[in-house]
Hints:
single chain; 85 residues; alpha+beta; 5-stranded antiparallel β-sheet; 1 helix; 42% strand; globular
Amino acid sequence: MDHQEESFNISVEINQGLEPLTFTIIPVDDASLSNKGALSFKVTRDKETLAILKSDQPHSWQQLEGKLDQKDVNVVGLAIEAHYG
Length: 85
């Protein structure tokens, strides 16, 4: 993935049957947050940081910080991938 250092918005359906939620995604290139200095993504909503996610392999995401469940981590991660796709 070719990453730019600019924030962007994604809308994902977290709770099935409810309106999609919009999150602001902020790329973070910080070696202190992730090993090998890999790019991570801060997931925010209403100026509150909900999680920091990192792709550990194609179509697989892990949460470095936060309290999202793995299903939501995957949904948000795939939306990030689609943004760069």
